[in-house]
Amino acid sequence: MKNTPLIVQSDGSLLLDVHAEGFEEARADISPFAELEKSPEHIHTYRITSLSLWNASSAGITGEKVLHTLEEWSRYEVPDNISFLVKETMARFGVVTLVPGEKAGVFQLKVAEAAVRKELEHNRKLTAYLTPEGDGYTLPLIHRGTVKQLLLEAGYPADDRIPLTTGDPLSFSLREETLQGEAFSLRDYQEDAVRAFIGGGRPGTGYGVLVLPCGAGKTLVGMKVMEQLSTHTLILATNVTAVHQWIDELLSRTTLKEEEIGEYTGSKKEIRPVTIATYQVLTWRPDREGDFPHFKIFSERNWGLIIYDEVHLLPAPVFRITAEIQGIHRLGLTATLIREDGKEGDVFSLVGPKRFDVPWKELESKGWIAEAYCREIRVSLPEKLKIAYALADKRGKFRLASENPLKNLIAKHIIANRREDSILVIGQYLDQLKSIAQELKAPLITGSTPNARREEIYSQFRRGKVPVLVVSKVANYSIDLPDASVAIQISGTFGSRQEEAQRLGRILRPKEKNSWFYSLTTRFSEEEHYAMKRQQFLTEQGYKYHIDVWEDSEDLEEPAENRF
Known about the structure:
The protein folds into four domains: about 5-90, no CATH class; about 100-160; about 190-360, P-loop containing nucleotide triphosphate hydrolases (Rossmann fold, 3-Layer(aba) Sandwich), CATH 3.40.50.300; about 365-555, Rossmann fold. The strands form four sheets. Strands 12-13-11-14-15-10-16 form a seven-stranded parallel sheet, sandwiched between helices. Strands 19-20-18-21-22-17-23 form a seven-stranded parallel sheet, sandwiched between helices. A hairpin with a 4-residue loop joins strand 3 and strand 4 (about 45). By secondary structure, it is of the alpha/beta class. About 35% of the residues lie in helices and about 20% in strands. Helix 3 runs antiparallel to helix 4 (about 80-90) and helix 16 runs antiparallel to helix 17.
C-alpha cells in the first residue's frame, strides 16, 4: 500500500484524503476528468462519468493520461473495470468528427470506424439528417446542434472542429479603474478561466461552460472574454434585474459607451452591438402552439459571442435555437451544473463542455468569497395544526410544514441578535412572505413587484437604508447585494440543491465580516425530509452544517440573547 491520498473504487468514485501528503497536487490532477460530488472535512468524493471523461477529452486529455494520473496517486491498485471504463469511454470521443464541408452551408460528419457508421445508419433519429458521402456524411449547418445531441445520446460525442465565426467587430477594453474610482483587475483564477475558454483560438475551443461559485466574479470573466474576442455579443440573463446589473457593470468596468449597449426585455427592445436579453422574453409566445417571436434576436445581428448567464437554468426552448447557432462562440456561466431536469448532456452538446471549475471552499480559504456558517433550526408544528397536517396529502403536508407560523418567531429572534447585519429573509410561499414582511415592517419583493420598485428597494438595501429585506425565489439568481451577510430561509422548493446553492450565494460576496445562512425547518415533517436533500449541496461543498432543535413554542418566547 502506498501512502498516497487517493482511493479509486470500482463504482467510479474517487475518495481523496484531505490530510494525506500530496492532497493538493492530486486534487489538481484529477479535477479535469472527475466531477466533484462532495467535499466535507476529511474525505472529498469525486466521480468518473461518461460526461466527465468526455469533458477531459475535449480539453485534449487522453485516456492514457487519466490512467497514469489514477495509478500515480492511488493508494491501492486501480480496479480493472475502471481502467476499462476510462479506455472505452474516452476512445469514443473523436470517433465522430465534425469538419467544414466543401460547400457553403453544409458540413461533414466523419466517422472513423465502419462498425460505428453501420450503428449510426440504424439510428432512425440520426438518419433523418444524414446524407452518406465517402467515410461519413454531409448535412446542413442548421442541424449541427441537433445532430450533436443525438450523437451524445448514442454514446458518440462529436469532436466539433468546425471553425467558429468571428462576428462583427467591436473594439473595447476593460478599465483599470471603475467609474466609481475603484481599482480592479482580474484574479488569477479568473484569468485561468478565460484562457481555458479561449483556448488560443484553436478549432474545438471558444465554446463551453465555466463553473465558478456565487460571488467569484463570473460577470468579470464574461467581460474579459468579450474583450478578447472583440465582437458583437448577445448576453442572456435570468431576469430584468440581472440585465440591468450587466449593463451597469459593462458601463462601469469597460470602455463601452451607453449607445453600444442594448436592453431586450418586456419593456424595451433595443438591439445594439452588446445586447442583454432575458430568458423570459425569448421564451414568450402568444399561445402554447405558436412560434417564439423573439427568437429573431439571434439573427438580427452578426453575433460573434453568446453568453448564457446561469446556464444551468437555460430553458428548453432556448436549447432548440442554440442547436441552430453552433457556429457562434458560446459561453455558459454558472455556479453549479446541477440541472433539476437532468439535461446536463444538452448543455455539453449545445453550449459546450466544462472548460474550468474551482471548488467553493478553495476560494473561501483564499479570501475571494466570504466565509459562511450554515445552521438549520428545527421547530415543532403548533398543536393547532397537527390534525390538519395528519389529514393532508403529501404536497399539503409539505406546505403546512413550510408555512409553520413559529418560523416567524425564530426569524425575529435571529434578526434581533444581528442588528449590525444586512439580512435577507427568503421563502417560497407568498402568504408566508407577506405575513413575515408585515411583522418585520420590511419591504417585500416577489414576482409581481414592478422592476422599477425592485431596483429601488435593492438600492436602499445596498446603501444600508433597508437592513432587512424579504424576498421570494425571484432573488435566487443574479442579484448583486454585496453587503448581505445573513440569509434566513423560511421555506424552499422541495429538495432543490440548485436553489440552496443560489440562496447561499446571495451572501458570499467578499466582505470583512463572516456570513450566516439559516434554514428554518419543521421537525418530524415532510419538509424535514426535503431539507436534508437541500442541505446536501452545502455539505458536499465543504460547509459545516449545524442543526439545533426547539422542542416547543414556549422555548421561543424566552429572551433570545446570544441564542443565534
